[in-house]
Design goal:
The protein is mainly α. The chain has 17 helices and no strands.
């Protein structure tokens, strides 16, 4: 820890946001060659959003909830959503030559709709956070009262409806069996039965993050009561590697059957994604406990505290990189060299965006846009 900050959380937020930029660069910067290896490598980024939600759960479920402050935070988050959507519209229109729009299209974009030339899909994450924040007082009440039975009634159905059902569907879909393909379609109604909407699966990550934060960081109970930090680190790394390889293999099978696609069907709520997310979170917390270098701790805090700025600004730099990544793509580089160059660009972009965020947070008025 550094002060009251938990370094493992900053590491997790940093990795999660770096994976977001890497994943979105595959869609919008167009630098990755569509190959099986690329498909497999990009599948490792699927933990990005679940990992960030785990961090939120670890923090929010393990500190006192001030309901008045929480209401203000919900209103503030909603206001930021509309302000940043408007900022994106203006920048897309005047810096990236997006088509001109009328009032009706402006309203559509402001309230979550789509218009050609305006890339707003990444705002779904803020919508998801707001849905979690709305439910937080209820979940926190159950959490503080140790009402594991009712929490189980929330988590078990969601896990079955999303992770189990759609995990089975994902496997059925990549087979050549018409019967299993048909069975997959028939199972689609199960997911619709769960009452938490399209973001329901994120509650599993949120609550799981809460458990990790509650028990893993307390060395008098939980894992560290029975195992050393190094044992936990090695075990979590093995689980992360195996589960990520399973996700990668499934993604490769999807691309082989249905054509190349950077996105993984059911990606965020595959069982393998759940295990890779949880194990990576545990791994990063363990690494944070072992870190002794003050410089490394300060770097992790720097990047971890600027993830919101990176998220809100990264689309602009990715669109600006299209020319550079286009040059990489048309060169006769082999796949490994192309991947390496793209990774370098993404990491450089991530660092630049973090520095910009740190600077902008010190500018009067503008700083309010990055307080999250």
């Amino acid at each position: 820890m550094q002060g009251k900050r938990i370094v493992g959380y900053d590491l997790a937020k940093t990795i999660a946001m770096l994976f977001v930029v890497l994943l979105h660069s595959s869609f919008y910067a167009c630098g990755f060659k569509p190959t099986g290896l690329t498909c497999f490598v990009i599948s490792f980024t699927v933990v990005c959003v679940p990992l960030f939600i785990c961090v939120n759960g670890a923090i929010l479920l393990n500190k006192k909830l001030d309901i008045n402050r929480h209401i203000r935070k919900c209103i503030h988050t909603l206001a930021l959503l509309f302000i940043w959507r408007f900022i994106h519209i203006v920048i897309y229109r005047f810096m990236f030559n997006a088509p001109s729009i009328g009032l009706s299209q402006l309203i559509t974009l402001m309230f979550g709709g789509n218009v050609d030339g305006y890339l707003m899909g990444h705002f779904w994450f803020i919508n998801a956070l707001i849905s979690i924040y709305i439910m937080l007082p209820i979940i926190k009440h159950l959490w503080d009262s140790n009402n594991w039975t009712l929490l189980g009634f929330i988590c078990v159905p969601i896990f079955v409806f999303f992770f189990v059902t759609d995990g089975v569907r994902a496997v059925f879909d990549v087979t050549d069996s018409k019967f299993l393909n048909s069975a997959s379609d028939s199972l689609s109604f199960v997911t619709a039965l769960q009452p938490f909407g399209v973001y329901g699966y994120l509650f599993i990550y949120f609550i799981t993050g809460g458990f990790i934060g509650k028990y893993l960081l307390n060395q008098n109970e939980g894992l560290f009561k029975h195992y050393s930090i190094r044992q936990v680190l090695i075990s979590s790394f093995i689980v992360y590697l195996v589960s990520s390889l399973i996700t990668g293999a499934l993604h490769f099978a999807q691309c082989s059957k249905n054509g190349f696609n950077f996105a993984i069907d059911f990606g965020y709520w595959l069982p393998s994604t759940f295990f890779s997310t949880v194990s990576l979170f545990v791994l990063l917390i363990s690494i944070g406990m072992l870190l002794k270098s003050l410089k490394i701790l300060q770097i992790s805090v720097f990047f971890g505290s600027n993830t919101f700025a990176v998220y809100m600004l990264h689309m602009f730099i990715l669109l600006s990189l299209q020319t550079v990544t286009g040059i990489i793509q048309v060169q006769n580089f082999n796949v490994l060299v192309s991947l390496l160059l793209q990774f370098v660009l993404v990491i450089a972009s991530f660092v630049l965006l973090s520095v910009c965020g740190e600077i902008l947070k010190k500018v009067p008025l503008l700083s309010n846009l990055f307080k999250f």
